[in-house]
Each structure stands twice: as C-alpha cells, then as structure tokens.
Amino acid sequence: MKKHTAENIAVRITAALFSVIMLMNCCFAEEESSTTQNAPQKCYELITSYDTGYYSKINIKNRSIVIEGCYANDKVTDITLKNCGTISSTLRVNEDGTFTSVINPSSPTGDSDELIITLQSGAKLDYRIMYSGSWYFPDNRLSETNNAVLENVISTSAKSWVGYVTDEQTEESVKQTLDEVAYLADYIAGDIDDEYLKLRAISEWVSQNIYYDRDAKNNSVTRSTICIKNVLKERRTVCAGYAALFGALCEAQGIYTVNVRGTVLSDSVSYEELSDGEVNHEWCAAYIKDRWVWVDCVWDSGKKYENGKYFDESVSSRMYFDISDLALSFDHCAYLAEKRYYFKAGEYFAGAADESSKESSVTSFIESSYEQTTPFTTATPETYSAPESYSPTTSNIEAESDENIIGLILIAVFSVLIIAGLAVNIINIIIIKKNK
Questions:
Q1: Of 3, 35, 125, 355, which has the fewest CB atoms closer than 10 Å, so is most exposed?
Q2: Cα separation, 291 vs 193, whole angstroms
C-alpha cells in the first residue's frame, strides 16, 4: 500500500509541475501576443505617394535598399540615410524624371533613421526607416485609424463657417473675401480640366505663397490669425489658416474637401507617442475619383514668418500632396474630420441654417449643386477635441523586448524545475520497483 502511494505521489508531482509550466507558457504567449499587437509591424516596401509624377517605390532586400520612381519636373540628385552613410550606391536618372537607385547602408548608429531623397530644386523628402537586425519601414497601424476618421466626417455649423472666412462683423467683408477666393481659385485652376490636377495646383499655390507665422504660434493664435481674409491679405497664418484657405479654394472649384485635426510629430511628440498626443495640427483630405487624397500644405511649405520678417526657410515640395497612407502614418495621426461649406456661411444669418438639412456625406455633396450664397456676419470658430469613443493604439518596442526576456527567463526556470521533478520521480519509481 505504501509503495502504491509513493508511486501516485511521484506521478502527481510530475503532473503538477507540467501544469505549472503549461500555464506559464499560456500566460507568456498571451502577454507576447498583446505586446506584439502594440508594436509596429515590419514592412519592406514603401510607396511614398500616389502622384505618378512625384513618387518613390522603395523595397528593402536583405541589406540593400532598392528605389525607383519619378519626379517629373524636379529630378532626383541624391538618396542617402541621415545618420549612417552608404557603403555603395547607384543612381540613374532619366530625362523624363524616372530613376532607379540601389543603396547599401553601413552599420546604423541606432534603431531609427531617415531615408532622404534630395531633388534638383533642393527639396529634401525624408521617410522614417528603422533597424532591428535588418532595415524595415514601421507600420504603427495609424493608416487604419486615419482612414476610419475619413469615413466618419462630422457636420459643422454655419456659424463656424463664417468665422473662418473673416474676423469682421460686416456682410461686405465676408462677401469680398469669398469673391477673392473664387477669383483666386479660377486663376490657379486656369484652363485645367482634370480635377486631380486642379487639386494639385491649388495645393502647390498655397504651399508656395503662404508663410507659416511662428510669431503667432509662439505668442497667441486668434481668429484674426486663421481667417481667410487675413491669410490672403498678410500671406501668413498657422496650420488652421492654411487648411481653411485650401478648403475654400477647393470648394470654389467644386472639389469636396474636409479639414482634419490630429497629432503630428513635434518637439514634444515622438513617433511612439503619435496616437496618444494632444491635437496640435490641422490638414486636409479631398475626395476625388472615388478615393481620398491627403494634403498637408503646411508641411509642404518651406516658408516662414518670424520676428516680423518673411523667410524662405527651405524649398517647398509636394511630399504631402497625395501622400500614401503608410508614409502619412510616420508623422500624422488623425482624430476627426469636419466638413465646412464656406460659400454657404450666409445661411446662418439668413435663417436657413437647418442643421438637419446639411449634407455631410461625400455622395450627397457630389449629387447636390450648391450656390455661393451671400454671407453676412462672423462668429468664433468652434473648437473640437478627439471623440470619447476614440481608442488610440500605442507601441512600445523597448517594453516588448524587456517583457520577452523576462518571459524567457521564467520559462527556463520552470523547465529546470520540471526536469528536476522528472529526475526525482524516476528515482522514486526505481526505488519502488526494487522494494517490490
């Protein structure tokens, strides 16, 4: 009886140890899965833009980076990494602006770098690239977040539309401003028939003719800073003014555009913090030819106004015109998109601003024909924050690495315990058999 009991105890010890290790494996697997879900995915191909005359297609193959594309009116002159040089590189540029290049980077100085494409104009286009045993482009899944925002455009009031047009309390000022917008839109579009080319022309004009007002940003941004009337008069503003002017010019040409608010990289917001940051930027998206086109005139502009003076800080580019979803996610996280009808702002004062009748969907806007009604007075623009239902995703590569190490150590410890337990059981069984 005692022999049988000892044998049962040995078996039970083995089973208990096996259960513990399986439980630890399951817990670690769940923890690893959760952590992996929050970490950026590794991508080995990046298309920088959907503009066929201004893009790069970048493929990472082992330690080589293979690049091809086209910059039709501004040829490529150099491609390199910012923080680590290249062992060797080739660059062939054709007369039509198409090009091919292969670069072999040297050892990186860290786990993150920037791939820089320099154009003939001096414009520098930079894209995030990372290293972890091999080079890759990070995908923090903000592409899905950004696109989801565009599928849920929110309605805004006529009161806010008027406030973005002018800071003056007169009908004449509002009408004069919108007349100027309509005239300027016709001037920019010229005889362009293609809607996409119109959009690109408007984006380029705003980027190349409006200066970013750092004095206002550092001191105070008011309604006067961002209203279209003063943006056109002073040729300077902050991001909200850029977006308002761009949206109004597009509306004047019948192009459906929304204003997007969200977080972008800054001195206080890192790449890892993008989806958790406070709203600090505004840009646009236009819906044409059955798809959305991202446009950020601010980040394409190389002009600034500082200490009371206008500067060409850098060369304006088209990097953020029709930028790809993945490339945008490197530095932009959208929280919401709002639709404004600048040329319908007068409805607020004419008593016709029935909120329930305002179109907010792409389809209804395209199917409707809107008139440029006469605006009346002005009001303070509404402000918005991220919706309560918004659930940001975060990434923490360093935390993932630490947790993986701890998990592996625990598995190793319990594996040793199981082996020891099995050894004890084998010895006990041998002793039991001898006693028989």
A1: 355
A2: 18
CA-nearest of 152, 153, 162 to 341 is 162
Q: Report domain 42-139's class.
A: mainly beta
Cβ-Cβ contacts under 8 Å for 412 (sequence gap 6 or more): none
Model pTM score: 0.73
Q: Domain 145-367's class?
A: alpha beta
Model confidence at 161: pLDDT above 80: yes
* Rg of the chain, C-alpha, whole Å: 29
Per-residue pLDDT tens over the stretch 52-94:
999 999 999 988 999 999 999 999 999 999 988 788 889 999 9
- Condensed to tens digits (0 to 9), the pLDDT of residues 252-284 reads 999 999 999 999 999 899 999 998 888 999 999
- Is there a contact between 131 and 108 (Cβ–Cβ < 8 Å)? yes
Sign (positive or negative) of CA dihedral 274, 277, 282, 284: positive
The Cα–Cα gap between 295 and 281 comes to 13
Q: Which two tokens stand for residue 202?
A: 């408007």
* Extents of the domains making up the chain: 2-38+396-435, 42-139, 145-367
The answer to whether the CB of 131 falls within 8 A of the CB of 109 is no
